[in-house]
Amino acid sequence: MHELTVARSLHDWALAQLEALGRERLVAIELERDPMSCINTEALRFGFEAMSAGGPLAGVELVVNDTTSRYHCHHCGHVVRTEEPPVTCPSCGAATPRLAHDTGVRVVALELSE
Amino acid sequence: MTRIALQKKVLGSNDALAADVRSRLTARHIVAVNLMGSPGSGKTSLIETTARLLRQDIRAAALTGDQATEHDAQRIRAAGIPAIQITTGDECHLNAGRVLDVIDAPELAGAHLLFIENVGNLICPAPYDLGETAKVVVLSAAEGDDKPAKYPALFRRADLLVINKLDLVPFTDFDVEHARRSAMDVAPHLEIVALSCRTGEGLSAWSRWLEQRLAVSP
Predict the structure, then answer these.
(1) What angle do CA A71, A76, A77 make, to 5 degrees?
(2) What is the per-residue pLDDT across B7-35, written as a single tens digit (0 to 9) for each?
(3) Beta strand A69-73 with A79-82: parallel, antiparallel or unpaired?
(4) Of A9, B39, B124, B217, which has the fewest beta carbons less than 10 angstroms from its beta carbon?
(5) Which residues of B touch A39 (CB under 8 A)?
(6) Which residues of chain A have pLDDT under 70?
(7) If we measure between CA atoms, which residue out of B118, B120, B190 comes closest to residue B148?
(8) Chain A: closest CA distance from residue B198 (Å)
């Protein structure tokens, strides 16, 4: 499934960050997962673990926190976080809120050893 | 332990490629429609049927994604629309990179309308921006009228829902109104057209929707 693609993208990016920061050891990657991301957490962990085995990211923990979806009003630009899609925008009342374009899995923090 | 806070979308590289696709399409005034839906929902049939409906001054082209075979591209070419098959192998969706690879192909030269037929799948194509102008979900009467509620991520990202194969409704338990309500419950913004590629019912609404998209193209 596509979690492997996502895991590869995350792995390569994290490796580049480690090098850019000049650090040897990454302990954890903290992620926020939108429920509409279509990413299964366990499949993502499995893919990341498989890709990291034997490399500089072996043993890095993925901390995945689920969040609520963001909806963006195409009329006024208001963004609302909610589980269910709003019928109208809570700010301007227009019937234009849409699931935010960048909905997905987001890295929110890296934990590095000293 | 050091904690570095940041905000980085994991599929950010796909979004950058999608932005590249979008700018190339915009520069060439091409309206691109990303057709998504289950295998067998009628995405290819809809493109074939649209070939017969389009005004003579509108030139269309198509990209079709499947794990294997050239079948869909062959069918679409036979209907008179230049088509490129993208075989994805182990990938369950198209991504922006695969579209970017072929965006300058001669088959697309002079096109006003580009259909991007995604891999048949109601889940995985959802989070991938392909640089398209609009996303369309095709749902057929043979699939069941509760699919929007069961697979909301795709429907919430779509601009239009096409309820297809109306000609099969009398032979199934599919309730068109229930399907509409199910879709509106998960995605209140959705436009909906119901049609049959076999009988022609509802096709004028689909044509109008496409022509409106072409009319507002920059």
Answers:
(1) 45
(2) 888 877 888 999 999 999 999 999 999 99
(3) antiparallel
(4) B39
(5) 127
(6) 1
(7) B190
(8) 33
Within 8 A of B18 by CB-CB distance, chain A residues are none
pLDDT bucket at B80, cuts 50 / 70 / 90: very high
Which one-letter amino acid corresponds to residue A65? Answer: N
A80 in Cβ contact with A70 (< 8 Å) = yes
Report d(CA A98, CA B148) in Å as an integer: 15
Instruction: Output phi, psi for B159, to 5 deg.
Output: -95, -35
pLDDT for position B69: 94
Instruction: Tell me how far apart the alpha carbons of residues B106 and B169 are, in angstroms, rounded to a whole number.
Output: 40
Amino acid at B198: R
Beta-carbon separation of A96 and B127 below 8 A = no
What is the pLDDT, as a whole number, of residue B218?
A: 66
Global pTM value: 0.88
Nearest to B1 among A27, A87, A98 (CB): A27
Interface of B with A (CB under 8 A): 1-11, 13-15, 91-93, 95, 123-124, 126-127, 129, 152-153, 156-157, 186-189
The pair of structure tokens assigned to B31 is 């309206």
The whole-number average pLDDT for the span B45-64 is 95
